Amino acid sequence: MGRRALRKIDPGLDLTRWLIAEEALSTPLSAELLFGHTAPLQIEVGSGKGLFLAHATASLPEHDFLGIEIAAKYAQFAAARLAGRARTNGKVIRGDGVRLLRERVADESIEAVHVYFPDPWWKRRHRKRRVMHAAFLRDVERVLRIGGALHFWTDVAEYYEATLELIRRTTHLDGPIVPAERPSEHDLDYQTHFERRMRLNDLPVYRSEFRN
Ligand SMILES: C[S@@+](CC[C@H](N)C(=O)[O-])C[C@H]1O[C@@H](n2cnc3c(N)ncnc32)[C@H](O)[C@@H]1O
Q: Quick check: CB of 69 below 6 Å from ligand 1?
């Protein structure tokens, strides 16, 4: 299934408070510098159009949310979604979430890491490009505070099974807990755009949550 063209972003929206380039970040990453306050920090890798960020920043205002998106046009789109809602607890970093976690995120500093519908890289010779690889999972375990959570959802059964096995082999994370499918109450009441797309097409969604 290809991705639909993005809606145009309102040219009047000033994204400077919501869209940050990876190169402009401090090392280690300081949530206090970014948000101007301290709060539990959650990270989403691969935010796409930013539906998760839009919902999560509203439903958990006492937490901060950082989306990391490698594709500039999606990073911009997700940031515009937050800017349009004037969210003070969500920002988007345009950059590589795998590198960012590895190089800039301190040990035991994160409340939750979310990875929803990462690109499957179907061809066997491309599998090494998958986000959910052993080194990344070890970084997830390292950055999560004790009791923190990893949320991983996909529509690809093989990616799901392979990742669950990799988590079991390479980390001490507890799980999986398998969250039940939530009925949607309106057109955008889904965890992410990809979840919406799969469910509207009656395709399966494989969900998992792990705890540190
Ligand atoms: C299949 S889309 C899913 C988007 C969204 N999570 C959803 O469920 O609707 C995967 C997204 O991950 C982004 N991505 C891939 N590799 C990444 C990386 N290393 N760091 C950050 N984003 C990445 C892609 O640009 C793409 O927007």
A: yes
Q: What 3-state class would DSSP assign to 111?
A: strand
Contact criterion met (CB below 8 Å) for 67 and 47: yes
Q: What's the full length of the chain, in residues?
A: 212
- Residue with token string 């040219």: 11
Q: Which amino acid is at 123?
A: K
Strand, helix or coil for residue 131: coil
Calculate how far, in angstroms, residue 97's C-alpha sits from the geometric centre of ligand 1: 9
What confidence tens digit (pLDDT) does each residue in 151-201 have?
Answer: 999 999 999 999 999 999 999 999 999 999 999 999 999 999 999 999 999
What is the β-pairing status of strands 206-211 and 174-177?
Answer: antiparallel
Amino acid at 64: D
